[in-house]
Amino acid sequence: MRLIELHLKAFGPFTERTLTFGDKAGVVHVVYGRNEAGKTSTLRALGDLLFGFPHLSPAAFLHDERALRVGAAIESDSGTTLRFLRRKGRVKTLLDPEEGVLDDGALKPFLGALERPFFERIFGLDHEQLREGGEALLKDGGDAGLGLFEAGAGLAGLRKVLEEIDGDAGKLFRPRGQNQLINEALKRLAEVRKELKLRALSGDEWRTVRDELTGVRVQLENVSKRVQELWAERERLHRIQRNLLPLSERSALLAERTSLALVPDLPDDAPAQRQEAESSLGEARRRLTGAEQEIVRLSGQRDAITPREAVLRQVDAIERLARQRGDIESKIADLPKREAELRQVRTEITRLLAQAGFKAKDAEVREILPRRPEVAAIREMIREQQRLGAEHEQARKTVEGYEVELRTAEGALGRSVEPRDTAPLAAAVGEALKLGDPGKGLRAAQAEAAAASEALAQALRKLAFWTSGDVELEALPVPPDAIIDRFASAFRDAHEQKIRARGALDDARRELERAEAELTRFDAAGEIPTVEAVRSARRRRDRGFRLLRRGFIDGREDIAAEAAAFAPGLPLADAYEDSVAATDEMADTLRAEAARVERHRSLVAEVARRRDLVAAQEGELRAVEASATRTEDEWRALWPSLGFAPQPPDEMLKWLAQRTRILERRATSRARQDALRELEEAHSSARRSIGRALVLVGEEGAGGDEDLAALLARAQRLVEQSAAERSERKSLIQTIDSLRSKRDAARQSYAYKEAQLEGWRERWGLFANRFGRGLTVMPAEMEAILDLCDETTRKLDDADTLEHRIRRIGEDRIAFERAVGACITAAAPEITGLDAVAAADRLAKVLASARGDEERRAGLEAEIAHHERIVDECRAAIARHTAKLEELCRSACCSTLDDLRAIERTWQQRRDVERRLGSVERHLLAGGGGRSLHDLAAEAAGADGDTLPGLIQEREEEAKQLDAEKTELARKEGELRTRFDAMSGGDQAALAAQSAQAEITKIHEGAEQWIRLTLASALLQRGIERYRERNQGPILGRASALFERLTLSSFARLVVEFGKDDEPVLLGVRADGKSVGVEGMSDGTRDQLFFALRLAVVEQYVSRNERLPFVADDILIHFDDPRSEAALRILGDLAERTQVLYFTHHEHMVETARRALGSERLVVHTL
């Protein structure tokens, strides 16, 4: 997918801003913006465009959230294009350019199942992520698996994640730990179980305490009930005592209210209404009298003023004359000054004409002066003469300079010699240089081959249980990973089943022990007769009776032996009586203790059930162990050729991983041996080729003791010397050709300038004759004449202006005098005889006086109208208030105001009675405990206020005595309860059992969490190792080439070696063959290593999937300029495969990109 256009319609600081990227491949798009120009907003807009706005968008600070819009035009790899907008919302956020709704799956052909986190991790990279990736490589110790996985997944700090998982698991359980959660819970569980076994006591003592406790509790309950009754009676008597006086007052108020029942009902504010109406009526009558008197007074003043209509009709003309008066007066005073200025200007014109050499009358002056076009043409010719003279002189000097340089170059060429042809030698040198440094490269290859062989031998020695060689190890048949994983899962399942079966068996045994202990404690509390025991006693009693009957009633048999066996040492009759008594007592006890008998039966049944459960759990454990044994036999059968007993699957997975790394070492060793042989053969071939080429150019060939490095250095010096000579001779020939061309062009230019100067002289003569001068007049002299002509023209313009102004003053004066005369005739004939200016001033004063009279008359008219309105208002108010008073009298059923006032007083008296009655009743209800007024009155009926205090005191004294008895009973009950709880285990036994169950729950939960964490760590490590095995070859190979370019060949390649714990470690190899771990690299180099790994992952992804833009945000700020240019060139190569956008706010980075990429591979967008 390629971004053709990004439209920031309404987003962050942007409004209708568009960035056009186009569809050209192979270019890097650099988006540059200063701080606060919107670079970060543009980056955020790209993610919001493709994957939607977050719930809280930081882009909504200029535009409302509902108005946010960002759009684009995109193109897929198949050529399909889409133009769309994205709005902020939950659903239907994709829109077409006209804001019609698009299907939510419209982007699926372009993005597939890609989600925002993956896109930002893999295809987005900023300098912070780059630095975190480099630091993660350092913290991981160069672990190859972690490094590849972190670069491929866009994650950093996986080592820390693994350590945190293992740390969390270690906090839960360690085999020999003490302070871990599961270890502590196991310890506390053992202590609680020990405590539970200590709870048991004698049955007789327990029953005695129980019966005594029950009796005390019954007494305590009776006393508490009697105390409550006494306090309730005391409260009732107190209430009656409080209510006697208010109830008496209520009766009196009810009687008074009845006596006032015939008073008419009036509104609450009736007196206020009456008083307001009376007051307002009197005020309205007073205002009416005053207003009528004021109307008479003002009418007299108005009639005394006489209007001046003639003056007011001329108001516009008089005001216009007043405005003109000051201007006319100023112009009349200015006229003599302007006439003197005109005379002075005319004298100056005569003087200027004389200086310029012109003679003419006043009317002919403008005719003899040159026109403006002529003046401009002459001035242009003067400038042209200056320019042509300078160019003519410069052309002459240029011709002379080229001739000197040409003679010098021809002499140098004559002294040079023809160089030898070293092309075959240069070709041989080029082929040899492809091998790198001859000495260092060969030594590095030899060292690498030896190191690889030694590493392989060490790895074989470290491989547990293996005694054969690497060839046998490679040929060893091993099961596939899927089968091993299946057996690992089966082993784990068998182990978990064993744990569960053993745990279930332990739980069953603990429950059996608990049931047996409870049955033992129950039996110790007293013997409980069973139904079977009663039946046995009855059978013995019946047998005794039969013996008595046979021996003493029937008298037919000798029963002495049977009687002795029935009751040794006792007479048969006594023994029989004892059996009857024992049987009756047992039957009575069975009936009396029916509940305990049932509990005993239940406990016996539970013990039997628990024993059956233990037997079942033991059988299940044996079955699980048998199944595990079969799985182990099948596992051993998978390894017939192993040579040693196979370890559990998890251990064998580690063994196989170690075997894989050894086989990789074996392949590496063979590859480096092959590379060494190829390099040695290449060195020999290069030495022979250079020796033959040296002989061809006349030099001595390869000596017997001259190695490739010395031979190559001698050949390079010959090639460079020949190339320098050839370059110098070629440069001289090119210089001579160039100088001849330049000299000929300079000669032509000189002739052309000569012709131009001659043409100017001819035209100059024509202009000189126009002014009566000959060809000898100089440009400077002509320039002075033109300046005098310009000054004369300006003076003529000044004279014309002054003449026009003097003429206009006279015309304005005449018009003003006529207008003044017309106004005087029409409005004020009495002021005839004054001059025009004075008359205009007098007319203004007359107008002001007439206006004052008119304004006073209008003011009086307004006041009269105002008072007439007051008269109307007062008459209406008098009628309104009179009607109000009549209405109040009707409502009180009276006809005069005096009667109304008397009724109001009686009505106020009834309202006061009702208010007092309401207060008394509210007081009674507030203290009545929820009872009604009727119930309170009935409760107090017949009560004697004098005897109530004595009754109240009697109830209080009795209640206090019983309170003391209650306190003593409560104390005794507490002591007995404590003894009873201690003897029976009580709450402590229950709490101990509850604590035991809590610890068991905690152990189960902790074990489940420990298993999850342990499995998570193993699965993550296995995933990282598998990712390394699948991607180490392609990704590491490409990253190695990129790393060499990023470090400017400071590192030649990347390799994977095996560390002290036999884990794969990523190393950088310098040009001299020295290996460097990530801990030995600088911060910047580690950043470049992570950058190389990330780019390799991106290239692999876009080669297999829909291509996506790679977005980099100022990732090069920690790179120096040379490495920045190298990184930009690599991004340029990446742009051939997928689109590359580089955001920056550093202007120098734009210049660096121009140097690295050139104009053909770079497009700069400025925010």
TrEMBL record:
Keywords attached to this entry: Coiled coil
Start and end residues of each YhaN AAA domain: 1-206
Keyword Coiled coil: yes
Pfam families from the UniProt entry: AAA_27 (PF13514)
Keyword Coiled coil in record: yes
Gene3D superfamilies: P-loop containing nucleotide triphosphate hydrolases (3.40.50.300)
Coiled coil location: 274-301, 378-412, 498-525
InterPro entries, per database record: P-loop_NTPase, YhaN_AAA
Name by which UniProt lists this protein: YhaN AAA domain-containing protein
Organism: Sorangium cellulosum (Polyangium cellulosum)
